[in-house]
Design goal:
Order of helices and strands: EHEHEHHEEHHEHEHEHEHEHEHEHEHHH
Low-confidence stretches: none
Distance between the termini: 7 Å
Oligomer: single chain
Shape: globular
Largest sheet: 7 strands, parallel
Helix content: 40-55%
Number of strands: 13
Strand content: 15-25%
Strand order of the largest sheet: 3-2-1-4-5-6-7
Radius of gyration: 21 Å
Mean pLDDT: 94
């Protein structure tokens, strides 16, 4: 079997990039009896050296969601000689004639299109519908996303839709006091803080998070947001709010370990990886009871309604609950996070590709 994998997102340090890098790295050893071609865009430093001689890498400089992706990328894929194409996302070119498997992470754009133009929204729905109709198999990252998919596209796709939960990297674990202090010093974090990791798109509801933090009246506690992008620029800033941009992934475990808690006001999630990463680092989590979050985080997190009042109350509870920072509670959080591993995701994905 000759399998091609779309790794163009692997050089992006955001959700889809993490998913692509981690899953493909775990998957390649399980495909050692097969020929594998990776279609990449940008540096491949993420690819372990032990895998480099076992795969073929084809540079595919076609930006996702671009016209070139639709018109030129299919030719590169088809000329490669692969027998099956695996897209780690929904965006499979319309004119690709090779059988394919794809992953649908969420249907959030159906409900929260933000500032996306009407033309782009129509194009998104058209490409997604085409991918769902033509796919040999569809992976979803939660039962919640699968239910959304069936609700929008009908029970006829149920038989070929499989839930494969993402994992959390082993690098997310409680960090030493020295490592926490080093990262605190690097980012000038001298006060206790709550941590938000994510974007500022419409459904992330970040302004409500900021307003709720202000309402909570937590004294010297700061709200630190590891977030960037044009959507963040339009937010109304308050006192004791800090934005950190360009934070390397390797600093996140120490930031989670040092934080008094991880918080989000999101209105929808297909999985919510930051919450699992926080738990793996021993950090208590305050999250909203929406989308896949109750399914993924369960009773190990403090779940509230995505309202300003409920979030403010939750922040006060998080700060005042000394047990939430105990070693026993941290162990409980780590145990829950261990339910999600990239090795398990790779084992579940492999049968759909071969």
């Amino acid at each position: 079997m000759h399998i091609g994998i779309d790794c163009r997102f692997a050089s992006v340090y955001a959700g889809l990039g993490t998913y692509t890098r981690e899953l493909v790295t775990a998957l390649l050893p399980l495909l050692s009896q097969h020929d594998v071609t990776l279609f990449t865009r940008g540096p491949t430093v993420w690819l372990p050296s032990s895998h480099r001689n076992r795969v073929r890498v084809i540079d595919s400089p076609y930006a996702p969601y671009s016209l070139a992706e639709q018109l030129e990328f299919p030719n590169i894929v088809q000329k490669s000689g692969i027998e099956l194409f695996y897209a780690t996302h929904f965006n499979v070119p319309l004119f690709l004639s090779v059988p394919f498997v794809c992953t649908v992470h969420d249907l959030i754009l159906h409900r929260y299109p933000g500032s996306v133009s009407l033309l782009k929204r129509l194009a998104y729905r058209f490409v997604l519908r085409s991918s769902i109709k033509r796919a040999k198999f569809i992976l979803t990252v939660s039962e919640c996303t699968k239910s959304d998919l069936l609700r929008h596209y009908g029970q006829r796709v149920a038989a070929k839709t499989h839930v494969v939960y993402p994992g959390v990297s082993p690098t997310f674990s409680p960090q030493s006091e020295n490592e926490q202090q080093r990262v605190r010093k690097q980012y000038s974090l001298s006060h206790p803080f709550l941590l938000y990791v994510g974007g500022c798109k419409e459904h992330k509801n970040v302004q409500t998070l900021i307003d709720a933090f202000t309402d909570a009246g937590l004294g010297e506690v700061e709200l630190v947001l590891v977030a960037s992008g044009r959507e963040c620029a339009g937010l109304q800033k308050r006192e004791r709010i800090r934005f950190l941009t360009d934070v390397p992934t390797e600093h996140l475990p120490a930031l989670y370990s040092a934080a008094a808690g991880s918080v989000t006001a999101t209105l929808d999630e297909g999985f919510y990886l930051p919450g699992v990463e926080a738990m793996a680092s021993g950090c208590p989590v305050l999250a909203t009871n929406v989308g896949a979050i109750p399914e993924v985080l369960g009773e190990s997190a403090l779940l509230v309604e995505p309202s300003r009042t409920a979030l403010a109350d939750g922040m006060r509870q998080l700060i005042s609950d000394t047990h939430s920072r105990s070693s026993d509670h941290a162990q409980k959080l780590r145990l829950h996070a261990s339910l999600y591993s990239w090795d398990a995701a790779a084992v579940a994905t492999r049968p759909l590709l071969v």
